[in-house]
Amino acid sequence: xxxxxxxxxxxxxxxxxxxxxxxxxxxxxxxxxxxxxxxxxxxxxxxxxxxxxxxxxxxxxxxxxxxxxxxxxxxxxxxxxxxxxxxxxxxxxxx
Length: 95
Known about the structure:
By secondary structure, this protein is mostly helical. It has a domain at 25-71. The chain contains four helices and no strands. It has helices at 4-13, 15-39, 45-55, 60-68. The termini are far apart.
């Protein structure tokens, strides 16, 4: 069984591993927070602040954000008909 003392002793004994783990966590979290603020500029500031704090929780915050944050609305324009989602249904001729 793993207890807190054994985990702390492990990270004290392997400081480089602990520092690398914290660096990866911080990099991923701050990239996600930056992406949130840049891509969702129309959201309220309080909403972005709360989600930013949630994203700072390693792994569980990231999963919570992915599961419960509302994605942006899809655009109604699909592009040119021959390349859009309606391409197979455009035109009357058979290939």
